[in-house]
Amino acid sequence: MKALVFSEKAMQAAGVAAYLKSVLPGVEVSAASFSEPSQDELGLLGGAGVVKVWMLPQSAWAAGEPSASAALSELVAKTEAEILAVWASKTGNEVAARAAQRLKAPYASECVSVEKTSEGFVAKRLVLGGGYTSKVLLKHSPFVVSLKASAEVGVGGQKPDVEKFNVSSSGPVIEFVELIKPESAHVELEKAEAIVAVGRGFKKKEDLSMAEELARLINAEIGCSRPISGDLKWLSEERHIGLSGKRVRPKLYIALGISGQVQHLVGMRDSRTVVSVNTDPNAPIAAESDYFFVGDVYKILPLAITRLKEKLGS
Ligand SMILES: Cc1cc2nc3c(=O)[nH]c(=O)nc-3n(C[C@H](O)[C@H](O)[C@H](O)COP(=O)(O)OP(=O)(O)OC[C@H]3O[C@@H](n4cnc5c(N)ncnc54)[C@H](O)[C@@H]3O)c2cc1C
Questions:
Q1: Is 183 inside any structural domain?
Q2: 200, 240 in Cβ contact below 8 A?
Q3: What is the pTM of this model?
Q4: Are residues 202 and 126 in the same domain?
Q5: Which of 79, 17, 51 is nearest to 159 (CA)?
Q6: Residue 270 per-residue DSSP state
Q7: I need a labelling partner for 269 at 20 to 30 A (CA). Which of 53, 161, 208, 288 fits?
Q8: If you measure from the C-alpha of residue 257 to the centroid of ligand 1, how many angstroms do you get, rounded to a whole number?
Q9: What is the number of structural domains in the chain?
Q10: How many angstroms does the Cα of residue 226 sit away from the middle of ligand 1?
């Protein structure tokens, strides 16, 4: 069985190689590099059991991820590697996905382990903010994984041979056109001590003014569930909290009309005190709340604002 490993950093490539050697006995591991490895790097890769380093043209890397993945997929085909294992950095994930697409190969990203079973290769991935692990069966070879798994690299191993590999196709080239700054002022929800978060319990954008008034009175930032910023566009993307948004840990988190789906919860469950208002007594946010009010935000918010104003004398 042959595997090809790749990372922008030799240390990570060596870690992945050592990991594959530890879980797949007998695997022959080569590494791909877009620059000439130093003697130290070759020592490291040798210590991990890498037998060969293929040097791909630096221009393929410089031209961006599509071109780098074209070169890698060509190398997989040439070496007949059954596994392409890429260190799961941001760039690595993209390069691996594009290489898999070119190879028409199964792909699993952000894996924490790979093992061989009687059905095929099984990769484990952390999902839903790391709260769960999913198992993915990779039925065909070659397959591609992006991995965050490594094993101890030995010292004093035999340095691998280095061979140049000239790619025939350059792949699509991407060109940087423009950096577009977000329109809104920057919001640092992660540092906020208090957050008033709004969800689909609000019927119109204008109604958010109630939540904004509450936030002003208690010196809180406004946050939201994803549908409010992503689908309805009532607030900027910077304010959405959860798996695909910000992870926050304020002293006080007030959730108004938010159901509390797991994708939202992973972004706010480190809050110290959670207060929520929801018409549904069975809304999942209840289990995360220190104070849970069953009721209508349209009735409770005006009352709360009036009482607060009385208390604060404003
Ligand atoms: C890959 C993926 C990533 C995602 N990432 C995120 C993420 O990062 N953050 C996120 O938030 N979501 C995320 N989602 C979406 C998530 O699954 C939910 O759809 C979303 O969190 C629901 O938003 P919500 O609670 O505002 O709306 P709903 O689930 O529709 O809940 C609205 C709640 O308001 C209550 N309500 C209705 N009327 C009133 C009223 N008048 N007064 C009081 N309560 C009322 C209802 O009882 C209900 O509980 C993601 C989904 C996917 C698939």
A1: no
A2: no
A3: 0.61
A4: no
A5: 51
A6: T
A7: 208
A8: 8
A9: 2
A10: 7
Q: What is the mean pLDDT of residues 47-65?
A: 94
Ligand 1 mean position to 20 CA, how many Å? 41
The residues that bridge with 54 in the sheet, in sequence order, are 32, 163
Q: Where does residue 283 fall: left (phi above 0), alpha (psi -120 to 50 degrees), or beta otherwise?
A: beta
> With a 6 A CB cut-off, is 261 part of the ligand 1 pocket?
yes
- pLDDT tens-place string over residues 155-194: 777 899 999 999 887 767 777 788 877 665 678 899 999 9
Range of the domain at 207: 189-312
Please tell me whether residues 89 and 159 are part of one structural domain.
yes
257 CB near ligand 1 (under 6 Å)? yes
Q: Which atom of ligand 1 is nearest to the CA of 225?
A: 11
Q: Which residue has the higher pLDDT, 181 or 306?
A: 306
- Among 189, 231, 243, which is best to mutate for testing ligand 1, by the most ligand atoms less than 8 A from CB? 243
Q: Is the peptide bond before 142 cis (omega within 30 degrees of 0)?
A: yes
Report whether pLDDT(52) > 70.
Answer: yes
Query: Closest ligand 1 atom, CA of 277?
Result: 43
In a mutational test of the pocket of ligand 1, which residue from 126, 253, 275, 278 has the highest number of ligand atoms less than 8 Å from its CB?
278
Q: Whose CA is nearest to atom 11 of ligand 1?
A: 225
CATH number reported for the structural domain that contains residue 303 in this entry: 3.40.50.1220
Kindly indicate the confidence band of residue 229, based on its pLDDT and cuts at 50, 70 and 90: very high
User: Which whole-number Å values give the CA distances from 307 to 196, 253, 313, in the listed order?
Assistant: 17, 19, 10
- Quickly tell me which residue has 């304020």 as its tokens: 250
Which protein residue has the closest C-alpha to ligand 1 atom 43?
Answer: 278
Pocket test of ligand 1: the residue of 207, 265, 271, 279 to mutate, having most ligand atoms within 8 Å of its CB, is 279
Cα(218)–Cα(223) distance, rounded to whole angstroms? 14
- Cα torsion 178, 184, 190, 196 to 10°: value is -150
